[in-house]
Design goal:
heterodimer, A: 305 residues, 9% strand, B: 230 residues, 6 helices, 2 strands, Alt_ATP_synth_F0_bsu (chain A)
Chain lengths: 305, 230
């Protein structure tokens, strides 16, 4: 008998038990693990899809923002370039103005310096010329020339009215002033002879008496090298001069006056303070050989006008 | 020479006896259960998993896929029964490479027991799916005239299941025994390899036929395709 019914029953039972065992220990755990993994994979894929969607959204956002940023950057760059150009132009203008001002200042300073140098050279030349002139004239001066000059002096004194009047007024200009014995000083380069002194005294007394002035004054004679050659008479702050030195002085003052006036007339831009001078009193009298001046430091007259 | 492992009796007490079929069946049950418990003790639900777990998953998913391919749309419901049928028959055949081993499926008692289980399971699943009336009505389709033929078919296919598996497994063992007596070298190895293939094919046939029977029994009035919905 090929079929043993007990064995059939036992095997049926065995098979059913095996079904339960494998269901419990094999299929269920394995299928659960597979399900769990599939759920996790599905969740992961869903998460990945969500992240992908977010990433795409963020990328779009980024692209949009980037475009906006690029646009803003371009606008800002353009503005900056224009602003820089304006600023550069402003700075360039200011620099040009400063450079012009500096150049003008330098040119002015140079002109002033040139003018000062020219003035110095001119002044030195003038001084040298007159110093040489004085030296030459001083060397040429002599007794005879002096005598001739005294003679001319006395003649001029007698012939000229205006300076003489001014001179005689000096005796009465100040009423409180008492004319002393040495109130009239006559200075010459060389010692005057007695005739010359007498002629001078005579003509002075005559002039004063003609002018109705008190004539109780004395005359004092002195010699001085400052006149080079000539004679001068000083009374009460006034003096009448007839000398080569006076010629030279007058000429020097005239040249100085020319120097002062001429550059001023030519130079329209700047003043020439370095060579500016004042009008020299007595220069108007340069035409006449006898000039009348006020003497500030006159030892005879204690006070000047 | 034994025609069946039933004839090898280790212990007997009257009607009750402990033959080789039962003992080797227990051995197979022990092997399947212990290996399942051992492999599934540390199952991983993550992407990373052990090789043994991977092997079991391949086997289980392949069985599930086959069940679904036949037309059962809820394979998890049937995998306990159908999967165990396949695994038991397949492992029983595979173990024939072990010396001294007698495949329990080489016993008509075992194959009859399995066929009886299928014979009982088919109407149970059918009734569960369609209800008693619905299932019984299936015997009258397509016409009432077919009722006797359907009933004969039900019995004959169960008998065929049992005899087919028994015949194949028993013949394999018989041929092996005869060849060992005639040509003890080389040729039996080839035949053993062929026997393994035959055993696997028989396991698949037994499993797929049982699945088809259950699928036919659980199918409702409307015809459903046998193809799985991938």
């Amino acid at each position: 008998m090929l079929v043993d019914w007990f064995t059939v029953g036992a095997q049926t039972l065995n098979f059913l038990i095996l079904v339960w065992l494998l269901k419990r220990f094999l299929y269920r755990p394995i299928l659960d693990a597979i399900d769990s993994r599939e759920k996790k994979i599905a969740a992961t894929l869903a998460g990945a899809d969500m992240k992908k969607a977010e990433a795409l959204e963020e990328r779009d956002d980024y692209v949009r923002k980037n475009a906006e940023f690029e646009q803003q950057r371009a606008v800002l760059m353009q503005d900056s370039i224009e602003e820089a150009k304006k600023q550069g132009q402003t700075l360039m203008d200011e620099a040009r103005k400063l450079a012009d001002a500096l150049s003008e200042k330098r040119r002015s300073a140079l002109q002033q310096e040139q003018q000062a140098i020219r003035a110095d050279i001119s002044r030195m030349t003038r001084e040298e010329v007159f110093a040489i002139s004085r030296k030459v004239l001083s060397d040429l001066a002599g007794i005879e020339l002096e005598a001739r000059m005294v003679e001319v002096f006395t003649k001029k004194l007698a012939s000229l009215d205006e300076p003489l009047k001014t001179f005689t007024d000096a005796f009465t200009h100040n009423h409180t002033l008492k004319i002393s014995h040495d109130s009239v000083l006559v200075r010459s380069t060389f010692e005057l002879t007695a005739e010359q002194k007498g002629a001078i005294q005579e003509i002075l007394h005559k002039l004063v008496s003609d002018a109705n002035k008190p004539s109780d004054f004395s005359i004092r004679f002195e010699t001085t090298q400052a006149l080079i050659s000539g004679i001068e008479m000083i009374a009460n702050g006034r003096k009448i001069v007839w000398s080569i030195n006076d010629y030279v002085d007058t000429l020097e003052k005239s040249v100085s006056a020319l120097w002062t006036d001429a550059p001023d007339a030519k130079m329209s831009t700047h003043t020439m303070d370095a060579v500016s001078g004042s009008q020299v009193p007595g220069s108007q009298l340069s035409g006449s050989q006898i000039s009348e001046k006020s003497v500030a430091d006159n030892p005879i007259a204690g006070k000047s006008e | 020479m034994h025609m069946s492992p039933d004839e090898i009796i280790f212990w007997q007490l009257g009607f009750i006896k402990l033959n080789a079929t039962i003992v080797y069946t227990w051995g197979l049950m022990l092997l399947l259960s212990v290996s399942s418990i051992w492999i599934t003790r540390k199952l991983s639900g993550e992407i990373e998993r052990s090789r043994w777990q991977n092997l079991l998953e391949i086997i289980v998913t392949a069985i599930t896929q086959q069940i679904e391919d036949v037309g059962l749309h809820h394979p998890k419901k049937y995998i306990g029964f159908l999967g165990t049928l396949f695994l038991f028959v397949a492992i029983a055949s595979l173990c024939t490479i072990l010396p001294g081993y007698e495949a329990p499926t080489g016993s008509l008692s075992t194959t009859a027991a399995l066929a009886l289980c299928v014979f009982v399971a088919v109407p149970l699943f059918g009734i569960q799916e369609q209800g008693l009336a619905g299932y019984l009505k299936s015997y009258l389709s397509p016409t009432i005239i077919m009722l006797p033929f359907n009933l004969i078919s039900e019995v004959s296919r169960t008998l065929a299941l049992a005899v087919r598996l028994f015949g194949n497994m028993m013949s394999g063992a018989m041929i092996m025994g005869i060849l060992l007596a005639i040509t003890p070298f080389v040729f039996p190895v080839v035949m053993t390899a062929l026997g393994l293939l035959t055993g696997m094919v028989q396991a698949y046939i037994f499993f797929i036929l049982a699945t088809v029977y259950i699928a036919a029994a659980t199918r409702t009035g409307k015809a459903q395709p046998l193809q799985s919905q991938h």
